[in-house]
Structure formats: structure tokens, C-alpha cells
Amino acid sequence: MKSVQTHPIRAHPVWKRLATPQADEAPGDDHRKLTAERLQSQRKAYADRIMALAGVAPSPGPASQIAAAFASIPRENFVGPPPWTVFPSGGSIATTSDDPAVLYQDAVVSLGSALGLNNGQPSLHAHCLAELAPSTGESVIHVGAGTGYYTTMLAKLVGESGRVAAYETESDLAQRARHNLVDFPQVAVHCRSGAEAPLPPCDVLYVSASSPEPLAVWLDALLDHGRLLFPLAPIDETGSMLLVTKQSNATFAARFLMSVQFVPCAGTQNAEADRALTAAFRHRNWHKVRSLRRDDHPDGSCWCAGHGWWLSTEP
User: Fold this and answer.
1) What is the rounded CA–CA span in Å between residue 30 and residue 239?
2) Of 10, 25, 145, 205, which sits 20 to 30 A from 254 (CA to CA)?
3) How far apart are CA 250 and CA 194, in angstroms?
4) What is the DSSP code string of 98-147?
5) Dist CA 228 CA 204 (whole Å)
6) What is the helix (H) or strand (E) element at residue 196, kind and residue range?
7) pLDDT along the chain (315 residues), means of 10
């Protein structure tokens, strides 16, 4: 008996629900065309699902605000015109569709860039935003803003009394981000690398591209209790998200969150740091890291060292 392979998008619960005729629709209607009300309902279900996948429990405060941001921001405005190329998680085959329903799942969506860039995996970013916990009035730097989808979330989280400086090296993406963020006066989009000085002082520094070392320009930008989150990874290899928090005595707590793979951040290539980091990850004990030290005198607790910095397994 010949097996039938289920289409990866049409098998998704979102598609099945949207393909079902509604009471107020005639049988001949194109049921995949969403009304604004149904699309908003879909965003709410998407937000709930993303937060659950990210392991963020529903609660007042940052978690509810992040969920509200996912529920209110039209993802279709940030991924170019249809048809969209969607890459579902779990290794499913990429599918192209002009139905916005396919955008509201935990999948990356192509940005149409010649560099093969995408919109990012929502659950990963939800987890990262929950760890950073941006709050009203804070100053944020976003490196690797793309077309501004997650930058918009940061803008919503800090509100009109906060500010967001976004950096994107691809001129086409930076232009699209400016267009998408035109209603957020607290956001400035810069078409240059966020790995180079000057950077403004900030409470939160979120990097959406990998680096083989914690750059001095990022650490210098942090205010007291400031949080830096970036993918620490060898070039074009899997690494881990490293959360660094500047403490009041100018020391830095540090811990890894999860394994990730991002495109390299422009301006961060360093062959020596890349070799040292590759060797450190080979030991598979990155979860033991507890602090970042800013000197060239590593001791026996050193997990990995570079020029002017090292990660320690001691607080």
C-alpha cells in the first residue's frame, strides 16, 4: 500500500483551523484568506504557544508583556511580500506559501536576503527576552536588527520613556527596519556594525549574531546591572547564548542559557579567540561558567580565555 506524505504546512493545526469554513462564510469562499479579526486571534494563539515552547510561565510583569508583544505585532510586515519561505523546526522541509497563517508557528522565515538571513526562531527569542527582562524606561542596544521584528518587541517593552538603538549592516534590511519602526520615536536604526564604537550606555544589549568573544565595546556600554546577551560561538559553528550581567562593583556574572547557531556578527572575527573557543566547547562543560573576568590573568577556574577577558567557573 502506497504511503501518503502529509504536507508540512497543511498538517499544521493553524492551517487546519483556518481551512475550516466558518459559520458566516459561504462554501465557495477562499477560507485561507484571513479577516483582520481572525488573524489577530491567530496571533494570540501563536503568542501563547511561543511562550510555552520557550518555557516562560504566564505571570504578571515581563512575561505577560513579552506575550502581549508577540500577540500584537504583525509578523507578516517584517518578512517581505508573499509568497513566504518558511522553515519549520524539527527539520521539516521548507515550504513556500502566500497564506499569513504559516507565519504564526515556531518557524524561521526567510528575509529574502542574498546572505540567507531569516526572521529568527520565535521561541528562542522569547526565552532570551524573558532572561533580559527589559523594563519601562530602560535603554537598549539591539545588534543585528534585521527588519526590526524583535527590535519592535524591545521598543514595546521599554515604552516611550525608554530608548532603543538598533544596528544592522545590511542596507536593505536597515531600510526596511526603519520603515517598520516609524511609529516608535524611541528607536533609532543605524546602518553599521554594532560591534564597533561608539555605542551609547545601555541597560540591555541584545546581540542577534554570533561572536567568538565578548567584545570590550559591548561590556563598556553596560550600565550598572546592565545585561548583555549574545551567541558566543566559533565562526560558522554551534555555540551558546551567554548572559553577562554587570554588577555594582564592576564585576560580571555570566552563565550560558542554551545551544544556538547564528550568522557571524560583522566585525567580530578573531582567529585566536575562535581557536580558543572551539577547544573550550569541545569539553562540553560550558554549563559550569559563572562569571566573566576582565583581565589577562586566568586562574585554575578558567573555562576559556581571550585578550583582556576570561570566563570562570567560579562566581
Assistant:
1) 44
2) 145
3) 22
4) S-GGGGSSSEEEB---TT--B---HHHHHHHHHHH---TT-EEEEES-TT
5) 6
6) none
7) 36 39 43 69 96 92 95 96 86 77 93 83 98 98 98 98 98 97 98 97 98 98 97 95 92 97 92 96 94 97 97 97
